Amino acid sequence: MNDAQALVIEDLLTKMLVNDPYSVAELEEAITWFQRDRDRVSCPFEQVWSRNLAREIVRELREQG
Fold first, then answer.
1. 44: which DSSP letter?
2. Within 10 Å of residue 11's Cβ, how many Cβ atoms?
């Protein structure tokens, strides 16, 4: 998985977690990246991205609560 694909996955997962709309096409495309030749996926998420995603999720949950 390349950096651009990782960013798409990050964006899609964030949308799913905070109940923002996303397209079925986005989801289908992301799924195909994980199904290629049954290869193992190496995702280049950096710790900073993970931390930012966690902060965004917490912020959204607090605003909804």
1. -
2. 15
Q: Is 34 exposed, middle or buried (0-12, 13-18, 19+ CB in 10 A)?
A: middle
So what's the pLDDT on residue 41?
54
Long-range contacts of 43-49 (CB under 8 A, 24+ apart): 43/1, 43/6, 43/9, 44/1, 44/2, 44/3, 44/6, 45/6, 45/10, 49/6, 49/10
| pTM for this entry | 0.53
Contacts for 18 with CB less than 8 Å, ≥ 6 apart: 56, 57, 60, 61
Residue type (1 letter), 61: L
